[in-house]
């Protein structure tokens, strides 16, 4: 769990690299993702050597997360110069909405977990299973409701996709 807290710092970067890198390949600029990856590996090695003595295994997770951010920043800067940007205004608005929905989801899941702990406790497999599954379900419902409330466009896209798949 402690390592995951540090890995999550780079989650947006991992996802962004998965979108940006193929864009450069499609533009015939394969050297850009290569340079970004080399930069990320160098950052990862340096950070792991520096952070492991201080944070232990958590330092390795943090080094990996920061390296992913380095990879993203190199790709984003190259995309800005070569293509003209990522549509930052709309992008940052979407990021703000998803961040707000994620914070609400975290609070709802945490609240559900705390409530269950107080109500049924823990100890056996069934109670531990409920302690794990119920907060996840509450978190999913809260995230979906908050995305709907905040008019996150991607939620509507996903719902339309699922309806098409179910009807096919």
Could you explain the architecture of this structure?
The protein has seven helices and no strands. It has helices at residues 2-7, 11-26, 31-55, 57-82, 88-120, 125-149, 153-167. Helix 2 (11-26) packs parallel to helix 4, helix 3 runs antiparallel to helix 4 and helix 5 runs antiparallel to helix 6 (125-149). The longest helix has 33 residues, at 88-120. The protein is flat. The termini are far apart.
Tag the structure with descriptive keywords.
mainly alpha, 168 residues, single chain
Number of strands: 0
Helix content: over 70%
Give the mean pLDDT: 88
User: How would you classify the helix and strand content by structural class?
Assistant: mainly alpha
The multimeric state of the shown protein is single chain
Portion of residues in beta strands equals under 5%
Distance between the termini: 40 Å
User: Uncertain regions: pLDDT < 50 for 5+ in a row?
Assistant: none
Rounded to the nearest angstrom, the radius of gyration is 20 Å
The largest sheet is: none
How many helical stretches? Answer: 7
């Amino acid at each position: 769990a402690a390592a995951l807290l540090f890995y999550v710092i780079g989650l947006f970067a991992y996802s962004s690299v998965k979108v940006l890198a193929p864009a450069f390949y499609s533009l015939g600029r394969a050297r850009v993702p290569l340079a970004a990856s080399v930069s990320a590996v160098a950052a990862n090695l340096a950070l792991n050597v520096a952070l492991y003595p201080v944070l232990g295994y958590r330092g390795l997770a943090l080094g990996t997360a920061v390296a992913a951010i380095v990879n993203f920043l190199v790709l984003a800067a190259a995309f800005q110069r070569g293509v003209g940007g990522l549509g930052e205004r709309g992008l940052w608005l979407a990021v703000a909405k998803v961040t707000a929905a994620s914070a609400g989801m975290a609070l709802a899941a945490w609240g559900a977990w705390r409530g269950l702990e107080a109500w049924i406790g823990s100890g056996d497999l069934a109670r531990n299973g409920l302690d794990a599954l119920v907060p996840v379900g509450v978190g999913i419902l809260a995230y979906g409701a908050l995305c709907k409330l905040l008019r996150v466009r991607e939620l509507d896209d996903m719902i339309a996709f699922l309806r098409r798949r179910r009807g096919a």
